[in-house]
Design goal:
Blueprint lengths: L2 E2 H8 L2 E3 L5 E2 L1 E2 L9 E4 L6 H4 L6 E5 L11 E5 L2 H12 L15 E2 L4 E2 L4 E2 L4 E2 L4 E2 L4 E2 L4 E2 L4 E2 L4 E2 L4 E2 L4 E2 L4 E2 L4 E4 L4 E3 L5 E3 L5 E4 L4 E2 L4 E3 L5 E4 L4 E2 L4 E2 L4 E2 L4 E2 L4 E2 L4 E2 L4 E2 L4 E2 L4 E2 L4 E2 L4 E2 L9 E3 L4 E2 H11 L2 H13 L1
Parallel strand pairs: 4-5, 5-6, 6-7, 8-11, 9-12, 10-13, 11-14, 12-15, 13-16, 14-17, 15-18, 16-19, 17-20, 18-23, 19-24, 20-25, 23-26, 24-27, 25-28, 26-29, 27-30, 28-31, 29-32, 30-33, 31-34, 32-35, 33-36, 34-37, 36-38
Antiparallel strand pairs: 1-3, 2-7, 21-22, 38-39
Length: 339
């Protein structure tokens, strides 16, 4: 596909500086781009590459003022990262397919209801009473258990497992090897030191427009539902325990673990390797720095946390500045005591 700078500017609601008729055939990283590609400058630490890139078109913000001549044609936009999302969508994902077929190698129970324009790949197994909305794509080796409901425009990449009775909303994307509805970690200690399994009879509800990264696991509720609200984005390798609820438009980075029955608010941002204990409530718009540990309720919306156990982000930074100087401070204290 080739498209002109002027056409891209119209798509991105931007303005062209340079040759509006120059053609590009795809996006590339700014340090690797060659003639015929479009690249972008979103982080100013990459600004030096703007003056050396071989890209034909460079996407920049309206506020960008170059300090040297730039050979590429510029497209100026209000928000570079939002424009890049639109641009990548325009050029398309190579995993997309316009072939809407049900593979002969798939095992689909006769009671399954499949909407229009769906594709089901090789070695997919779909159990009884499943419903799949129109325009959904199910890649090879996916398993879907009894009574599962899948909305419209859903994409399930290879190896996804969805256990019995779970619900997936419209336009969700589940990447490879995601597991939805495995048993929650429920065991009752016995007097003889053993543990008796507590049956997990609930389900998982994932609302619309949720994206879940590879190898993330969301456990079914003991009773009731584990709920992922609309617009949530989960990274790879995340553990969501039974009866957790994650509010709308919250984002969670890789290797985070959220223990059972915790309620996470809306529009929260949770960094990588964060640990959150069970049965706590996290207020809306909370921001938790990577590798922090949350062991109590966060009741104030918009709180920023850091550390383990986590406390105020600004207090942590001030405390850390002191902590680094502890050997020096101890020596000075000992000197003062001797004097």
């Amino acid at each position: 596909m080739q498209v002109s700078a002027q056409q891209l500017a119209a798509l991105l609601q931007g303005t062209v500086e340079g040759d509006p008729d120059i053609l590009v055939q795809g996006p590339a990283k700014i340090e690797e781009a060659q003639k015929g590609s479009i690249t972008f400058l979103g982080n100013m630490k990459y600004e030096p590459f703007a003056y050396t890139t071989n890209a034909s078109v460079l996407l920049v913000s309206n506020s960008f003022v170059p300090s040297q001549p730039i050979s590429a044609t510029l497209i100026r936009v209000n928000d570079v990262y939002a424009a890049i999302a639109t641009l990548l969508g325009h050029f398309g994902d190579q995993l997309n397919t316009d072939v809407f077929t049900i593979s002969e190698k798939a095992s689909v129970h006769p009671t399954v209801r499949v909407g229009e324009r769906c594709s089901i790949g090789d070695y997919v197994v779909i159990a009884e009473n499943v419903s799949i909305g129109s325009g959904s794509r199910i890649f090879p080796q996916v398993y879907i258990g009894n009574n599962v409901k899948i909305g419209k425009g859903v994409t399930l990449f290879p190896g996804v497992r969805i256990y019995t009775d779970c619900i997936i909303g419209d336009n969700c994307i589940l990447h490879a090897n995601v597991v939805i509805g495995s048993d929650g970690f429920g065991f009752a200690p016995q007097q003889d030191g053993t543990f008796q399994k507590v049956p997990q009879i609930g389900n998982v509800i994932i609302e619309s427009d949720v994206e879940i990264g590879s190898n993330t696991t969301i456990d079914r509720a003991t009773m009731g539902s584990t709920i992922i609200r609309s617009g949530v984005k989960l990274d790879n390798l995340i553990q969501i325990a039974h009866n957790v609820e994650i509010g709308k438009n919250t984002v969670v980075a890789a290797q985070t673990g959220i223990a059972g029955s915790t309620k996470v608010g809306e529009n929260c941002m949770i960094g990588g390797q964060v640990g959150i204990v069970g049965h706590v409530k996290i207020a809306d718009r909370t921001r938790i720095q990577a590798q922090s540990g949350v062991s109590a309720d966060v009741s104030e919306p918009g709180t920023a946390l850091y550390g383990s156990p986590a406390f105020s982000y600004s207090s942590f930074l001030r405390s850390f500045a002191v902590f680094k100087k502890l050997p020096e401070l101890l020596k000075r204290l000992q000197d003062l005591e001797r004097k």
